[in-house]
Design brief:
The strands form 9 sheets. Strands 7, 8, 9, 10, 11, 12 and 13 form a 7-stranded mixed β-sheet that branches. The protein is α/β, with parallel strands linked by helices. It has 27 helices and 29 strands. The longest helix is centred in the last third of the chain and has 30 residues, at about 855-885.
């Protein structure tokens, strides 16, 4: 056993004085690191790698606190634990940040060139990657830093190439010209799930398209008139009687003069607009599909930067919205604009930069998803993967069941460059695991590597197995894969979770994780998402520097229920800090009394008091319930249970009941027993609390008699049925209830806490009466009782008392000597007089027919109710005054 001295434990809880000290100790002694040990049950977690775009926010703090609690808990359970940390290169987001800094310098990536630009991005990654790792350490995250990874490190890059080439060889990756979501600001394609749709106020323009060779027109309605330069048809529903005779006719496109067909397609909604829609295959995903069905030409008229292309004629080069404005004016002038009406519709925005996306036809790389999605659905349906909470299972399944091919190419420079080389001579494409110098089809050296990079989510989809050494057959991969638990927010189930399952099953040989523990977002006190634009974001380090990491962690966890958003309140931070302070003060009180005590003393069964037996039983029950809740991912409930036990039962009840024994210099055995129970319960509960508040618990545990090097490697408290003492709990709860009732009666009378008073009890249960009689010292200590008298069950009620009742007992406090009769009489008399004045006023008001007939019935009823309440209060006061007169 080893122990730091508790004699000089500071009076004030100051987390800054020990949090960094203990983290350095843990890290220096490699206590976060486990080698693969086949003799032990593995428990592995991979961190959702934060983007190297800045620093961690409060959502990251929640996510990593949840992971750390699980990891520390399982480590104390004796499992072979690995928690892999790392960062994601975050292609679009990181490139946008670096390009923004270049704009401030008055330059851009094209002036720098690809090589120099990538050097700048790597510098950025180093700066912000280091900041993120510093924040994780400040939070207390017990990651295995020897296993730290980055999605573009050498091992991950090799894994990415292996997966890309394998999928290509299996026919699941292909290059094709398809319509994609294009961000004009990021100048790259993005996937469907990177598009955020928001309802916006816009317009619906009704335009006239002339029927060739006639003076007749077809009226169409559109929200995007600027795309009409790319119209290659007009569609109507085949059952729409208004247009049946016109199907097959040719229309003349206004302004442009192009001849386009009018055709029928069941996609068209006859109830929208006029029932006739312009079809622009190159700039609308639904139009693209119709164009494929009807062999329509794809005319691209909007450039990658959101300006109008050559196909827009005189409008070429204009911003798309400026073109819209000028075009609508021209359409009006030539008589092609019928009307304009206000119209709300969903508009897609880039999730990264919030720019309105532009559907564009372009040549991209895609993954065929259907074959990958089916096994991923089956893995959840057959129970190999479990979602917590279960309701997220349906969201996951619905998305996979309706999945579309995944556009994986991005027109960026930062990221995993696509391992494909295009030949200038034969036009073929070669895909290779290694860089090639000649075309694999014709041998020509006139080849160039594809300029695009892969979607960030392609590489992060491999994270659970690539971080374990795949594609090498490593010891870590064999032992720690599949991982045990994935902790993540509900906002990336589609982006990341589903794709990891697909890739894990395809290449890892199994599901990537057994449980998916979903949490919500951290919002501000008004329920808004935290963001820079709103100015409501809070840096976790700011909270840690002011209140300590344990305070932040405990605040986040106890306000959290699986899958639900939580709100950040500074008041809750203060409450968590108060809890830490309460533990600190209680520990200090105990450690001061422990100085000079016999650490080897172990009580005999007969030494334990009822309070000792009760607190030991409650500590065991708390450990059992906390364990059950952690196993069920109810981490917030587990934290709440520890809070209730420590604050209320241990500090407010048990410690108070030990004071008489600790200050008793005569009965040393009783004192030593109390100290033994105090330190046993505190040490045990510190281990229970450690996953939640690692620093505080280590600091206190090191000052207690203990076995082992540090608390984070100490065993988790185990509980047996023999540890539960139901009899002691029943008796102690009954005593506590009487004490609570007594305190409430004294508070109602305004009795000073230090003023002792007699206490009379009538017990309905004879056995309980014996227990109470043998523990009157508890009532002296905690109910300010000067003497305790027990009434027989059939004895008459005492006079001149205030009474409190509860199941199994009646409590009586004699008024004599408890209150100042003269002062209380004066107070009650004054209160009675004021109430009688109000009664007189209300009686007169309600007798006034002018009020009762004109006032609303609800108002009159409220006044009558108020009068009845005052009369009831006066009656009670008169009774009290009569009782006081007898004293």
């Amino acid at each position: 056993m080893c122990q730091e001295s508790g004699a000089n434990i500071p009076k004030t809880y100051d987390p800054a004085s020990f949090e960094r000290k203990w983290y350095s100790y843990w890290e220096e002694h490699k206590l976060f690191h486990d080698e693969a040990d086949e003799s032990r049950e593995p428990y592995s977690v991979v961190i959702p790698p934060p983007n190297v775009t800045g620093q961690l926010h409060m959502g990251h703090a929640l996510d990593n606190t949840l992971q750390d609690i699980l990891v520390r808990y399982q480590r104390m359970r004796g499992k072979n634990v690995v928690w892999v940390p790392g960062c994601d290169h975050a292609g679009i987001a990181t490139q946008a940040k670096v390009e923004e800094s270049l704009r401030v310098e008055g330059t851009n990536r094209f002036e720098l060139g690809r090589e120099k630009f990538l050097e700048r991005v790597w510098d950025w990654k180093q700066q912000y990657g280091d900041r993120i790792m510093y924040q994780l350490r400040m939070l207390g995250a017990s990651c295995d830093w020897d296993r730290e990874r980055f999605t573009m490190d050498e091992g991950c890059s090799r894994a990415v190439r292996e997966v890309f080439v394998s999928l290509y060889e299996q026919g699941l990756i292909y290059q094709g010209t398809r319509i994609t979501n294009w961000c004009p600001h990021c100048t790259t394609a993005i996937s469907d799930i990177e598009v955020e749709h928001e309802t916006e106020a816009g317009h619906l323009w009704h335009l006239r398209y002339q029927i060739e060779g006639t003076d007749e027109y077809v009226e169409i309605a559109t929200t995007r008139p600027e795309t009409m330069f790319g119209d290659t048809g007009v569609a109507v529903h085949p059952d729409d009687a208004r247009y049946k005779a016109l199907v097959g006719k040719t229309l003349i496109l206004p302004v442009v003069g192009r001849r386009i067909p009018l055709f029928a397609d069941s996609y068209v909604d006859p109830a929208f607009g006029t029932g006739a829609v312009k079809v622009t295959p190159a700039h609308d995903p639904n139009d693209f599909e119709m164009g494929q069905r009807h062999n329509l030409e794809q005319v691209v008229v909007i450039n990658a930067d959101g300006t109008m292309g050559e196909g827009a004629g005189k409008y070429a080069g204009l911003d798309r919205y400026e073109c819209r404005k000028q075009l609508v004016k021209e359409l009006e002038e030539i008589g092609a604009l019928v009307s304009t009406e206000k119209h709300e519709h969903a508009v897609g925005h880039c999730s990264r930069c919030k720019t309105t996306i532009e559907p564009l036809v372009s040549k991209q790389w895609f993954v065929r998803m259907e074959d990958l999605a089916k096994p991923a659905i089956a893995a959840v349906k057959d129970g190999r993967i479990r979602f917590v909470p279960e309701r997220f299972t349906k969201i996951y399944e619905n998305w996979l069941e309706n999945i579309r091919d995944w556009c994986i190419s991005r027109q960026l420079w930062w990221g995993h460059r696509i391992p494909a080389w295009h030949c200038a001579d034969c036009g073929e494409t070669s895909v290779s695991r290694e860089d090639i110098m000649a075309c694999t089809h014709c041998g020509s050296t006139h080849i160039h590597q594809d300029e695009d990079v892969l979607d960030t989510w392609f590489s992060s989809a491999l994270w659970p197995f690539e971080t374990m050494g795949w594609p090498e057959d490593t010891k870590d991969l064999r032992h720690f894969y599949p991982t045990a638990t994935l902790v993540t927010g509900y906002d990336i189930i589609f982006f990341w979770v589903a794709r990891m399952v697909m890739m894990g099953l395809r290449f890892g040989g199994d599901v990537p994780f057994r449980d998916v523990f979903i949490h919500g977002l951290v919002r501000d006190s008004e329920g808004r998402k935290m963001s820079k634009s709103l100015g409501n974001g809070i840096d976790p380090v700011e909270v840690i520097e002011k209140y300590g990491a344990d305070t932040l962690r405990f605040m986040l966890i106890t306000g959290n229920t699986p899958g639900n958003d939580m709100r950040f309140y500074w008041e809750r931070v203060e409450a968590a800090r108060n809890f830490a302070n309460k533990i600190w003060n209680a520990s200090r009180y105990m450690l001061m009394n422990l100085e000079g005590a016999d650490d080897s003393f172990v009580p005999e069964e007969s030494d334990y008091t009822l309070a000792d037996r009760w607190i030991l039983s409650r500590a065991a029950e708390t450990a059992r319930d906390v364990t059950a809740n952690l196993e069920n991912y109810e981490l917030g409930e587990a934290g709440r249970m520890i809070y209730e036990f420590l604050w209320s039962e241990f500090c407010d009840w048990y410690i108070e009941l030990t004071k008489a024994r600790l200050y008793d210099k005569e009965n040393i055995r009783a004192k030593n027993t109390a100290l033994y129970v105090l330190r046993t319960v505190l040490e045990r509960t510190m281990r229970l609390l450690h996953p939640f508040m690692p620093f505080l618990t280590e600091e206190i545990w090191q000052k207690l008699p203990h076995e082992g090097e540090c608390i984070m490697r100490a065993p988790w408290p185990e509980v047996s049925d023999n540890d539960i003492d139901a009899e002691a709990e029943t008796a102690m709860i009954a005593i506590m209830e009487v004490i609570k009732v007594t305190r409430n009666l004294r508070a109602e009378l305004g009795t000073p806490p230090g003023k002792k008073s007699a206490l009379i009890l009538r017990m309905r249960d004879a056995a309980l009466a014996d227990t109470f009689a043998s523990h009157v010292d508890y009532f002296h200590a905690l109910a300010s009782a000067s003497a305790v008298t027990f009434l027989a069950a059939d004895a008459p009620d005492p006079e001149n008392v205030v009474t409190g009742a509860l199941a199994g007992a009646a409590v009586y406090l004699p008024l004599a000597g408890l209150i100042d009769v003269e002062k209380e009489t004066a107070r009650l008399t004054k209160e009675r007089d004021n109430l009688e004045k109000e009664i007189g006023r209300l009686t007169g008001k309600l007798a006034n027919e002018g009020f009762t007939s004109k006032a609303p019935a609800a108002v009159v009823a409220a006044e009558r109710e108020k009068l009845a309440g005052y009369e009831e209060k006066v009656a009670l006061i008169r009774t009290r005054l009569a009782d006081l007169a007898k004293l």
